[in-house]
Amino acid sequence: MIRKTGYLGLGVVLGAAAAATAPQALLFVSPSAYAAAADTYRQLNLFGDVFDKIRNDYVEKPDESKLIEAAINGMLTSLDPHSSYMDSKAFRDMQVQTKGEFGGLGIEVTQEDGLVKVVTPIDDTPAAKAGVMSGDIITAIDDQPTQGLTLDQAVDKMRGSINSPVKLKILRGAKKEVKDFTIVRDLIHVQSVRSHVEDGDIGYIRITQFTEQTEDGLKAAMDKLHSEIPADKFKGYILDLRNNPGGLLDQSIDVVNSFVDRGEIVSTRGRTPDETQRFDAKPGGDLSGGKPLVVLINGGSASASEIVSGALQDHKRATLIGTRSFGKGSVQTIMPLGQDGALRLTTARYYTPSGRSIQAKGIEPDIKVLENVPDDLKGKDDMKGEASLKGHLANGDEDTSASQAYVPPDEKDDNQLVAAVDLLHGVKHPEPAVKADAAPAKTDPPAAATAAPAAPSDPGQAGAAKPN
Amino acid sequence: MRKGLSYLAYGAAAGVLLVGASHDALRAAASAGNEKLAVFSEVFNKVRDSYVEKPDDEKLIKSAIDGMLTSLDPHSNYFDPKALQDFQSSMKGEEFGGLGLEVMMEGGLVKVVSPIDDTPAARAGMMSGDLVTRIDDTAVKGLTLKEAVDKMRGPAKSPVRLTVERGSKGDVKEFTIVREIIHVQSVRAHLEGGDIGYIRITQFNQEAYDGVRKAFDHFRADPGSSSLKGYILDLRNNPGGLLNQAVEITNAFVDSGDIVSTRGRTPDQGQRYSARPGVNLAQDKPLVVLINGGSASASEIVSGALQDLKRATLIGTRSFGKGSVQTILPLGENGALKLTTARYYTPSGRSIQAKGIDPDIRVLENIPDDLKGKVSSMGEASLAGHLKNGDEEEKGSDAYVPPDRDKDTQLEAAVELLHGARAETLRSPDPPAAVTSQ
Fold it and tell me: Which ipTM score applies to this complex?
């Protein structure tokens, strides 16, 4: 999997379901907007006038598509930071992203000092099998140097049709050993759900982003955990949403429904009636058997992640551990524009079941636990959050402070995870215990606590790509 | 010569070229069925209908226009009505209420480059090098130069209080100065060393040519003018201005020949401007033109023409390299569009776009240590989206002129050249006049 770190900048799509907006007539004016119509015409005519003057008089023949694209981009930039224009290529990329599969090598990459760096190879992909390692620097792709390419361009070069080969030149380690790889592309599934048994009696589930694969992935993970942990020993779940930038709205609703059986999950409000909707849990959807639940969040948990953690917090279904979440409380709708890509437009705000908007505020965890950040990452590990994005939708008293978004690669060092395990095991903490209102957490009598053998750490859970 | 003004400058702006209304109507009709425009309308309507908050139509369209123009070259922009007004008054050399200071930004403070003669600032005793730290009750630190200038300007007869640090000891002084109408002079002239006519043009606004004509009148009125050795035309840090002014001013030094030609995509953007006989004010006297990295556009038309016509010797550093012409296209009550409509070519047919003009004699100024690295102009070739001009583009050139005339090496070189005190020979007017023989 190649995940573009740029995507973590909350280029997140919620509610692609509403995408099939019927094509609209040009210059459509609703009767009630009659008074405003004249001015709207005037504005649109002004634009047409400028466009014509450029077409006719600019020193070089302009590319009209480029002009219009730049105009649309300019217009959308004046709105909130999550509204944007996607050209046809960006639109395809986004579809790949939300669908969760593409032809590629299976590495997460980031850009460092102009070079492409491997964050981690994904288990069981061509890159992992060929021996590409975390920290490798990719200096050339098919003999073309990566220096000077953007991360997007490099990623595009690595992706391609299944069974086609690609050559990578790699520098490895402090000695900058040069290695050449020829790797054959395969269908890469963006695994959005990973799970393992933690400490022998806890079901750990990590969702990296909310794609079309998430609901099925979660069901499979929960089935597997139930088969691995005897029901009488099952202490509960940890749902890890740290550094999860969001994704599809319907998927986040399904995820909540897998832990609650009734009640409201989220509601959205826009300017038009069809943007105003309420989503409730479907009875029979709860797969969790009422076991206690801890949700891990941090400054990189945004959007769909906040819908899930906000709903589970409001329902008193889960205890939230970690640091304050990102604070993106808006919904984008994808509106295809024929051959010309698509418009991603912020069409609504969403509200948690208790009616709060987390926009530019984020969700406070019930138990705040910080990670120990290594010295060389200090200052780089904090997420500034929605409230510091230029042009964000305003929401009263906002929280502009940064929130930690670091997850240690080694589980042993992961304070937040350790706190979650301790809480589910009933190990005493000064903080409040597991919430047990809605779902009576049948905490088994604290069995001669401690000394449970540490579960083998799952390599799949490491390597959460760092935002920014 | 064509009437109607085209504008050339890289910084602020001016000039109008009227486009006939019927022509406009025709164009509007032509684009009515434009598919691309339909895509834009569709997006505009979607935003208006579905955005989470009610958007401001005017802001949407303005952002769209700005976005579209940004995708062109760096000199095309949109002026809303207020910006258009500012632009037009700056081109008219219009007056404003102020103090009469030329200022620049240094270390976050406003530094006085020079008080303008016979203005309230000069009479109050403000001096070159003074650092303005407060304007009324606002600290200057943190303001942009434009914000500071806006605070110093105001209606005539209103007072303004300045706190100033002076000299190496930073003596603090306070001035309360009453604003007056200040006339921006684009041309200044004096006799240099008694026998050289020095003319400095700060920008090519609508009064520039008149200013040059008055400068010659002034020289002629001087009793010593009959023994003038020649002229120095100082175009350093002159960002440009109006095309017709550049043509007229070149014509003040030559009798015949092409001055500049422009070429756009449409025939009416292709024009040739030639010298008219009988308006050469300088006659045959030798001429030195001073240029540097801040000499752009109209300045480059003048110096390029005078170089190609072998009329002047150019001294200084390579010029900025803006070889394009902008036209102001009015948009009715909605302001105007400043659009790059043509490239221009010097009489020998070269385009200086992204290359600049190399002086005949390269002379560098000694830049004080604290300004090193801050006084180079990056030049056209380093602007994002600049019009391309082959492979041999040139970036960056010094743009420093010492405030103290005695330290001005370029000016000194020009004087020496005109006095015959340099190894290089002075380029003589064609036909060669009896060179500096006295």
Answer: 0.79
Interface residue of B26, B47, B50 to substitute, partner A, most A CBs within 10 Å? B50
Determine contact: A347 vs chain B, CB below 8 A.
yes
At CA A394, angle to CA A389 and CA A396, rounded to 5? 125
- Contact between residue A462 and residue A408 where contact means Cβ atoms under 8 Å apart: no
For residue B149, what pLDDT is reported?
A: 86
CA dihedral A150, A151, A152, A158 (to 10 degrees): 120
Among B18, B61, B343, the strongest candidate for a mutation testing the A interface, having the largest count of A CBs within 10 A, is B61
Q: Is A391 on the interface with B (CB under 8 A)?
A: no
Catalytic residues of B: 297, 308, 322
Q: How far is CA B230 from the centre of its chain?
A: 24
Provide the pLDDT confidence category of residue B257 given band limits of 50, 70 and 90: very high
Strands A177-184 and A165-172: what pairing? antiparallel
The answer, for A120 touching chain B at a CB cutoff of 8 Å, is no
| Structural domains for chain A | 101-189 (2.30.42.10), 193-464 (3.90.226.10)
Contact B40/A28, CB-based, under 8 Å?
Answer: no
> pTM of the entire structure?
0.75
The reply to whether residue A330 touches residue B52, judged by beta carbons under 8 angstroms, is: yes
Q: What is the pLDDT of residue A222?
A: 97
In sequence order, the 6+-apart residues with CB closer than 8 A to the CB of A464 are A208, A242, A243, A407
Tell me the pairing of strands B361-362 and B313-316: parallel
- Alpha-carbon distance A176 to A188, whole Å? 29
Q: Which stretch, A153-162, A385-394, B235-244, B250-259, has highest mean pLDDT? A: B250-259
- Provide the H-helix boundaries in A248-346: 249-257, 304-314
pLDDT digits (tens, 9 = 90+) for A223-236: 999 999 999 999 99
Tokens found for residue A375: 């010295």
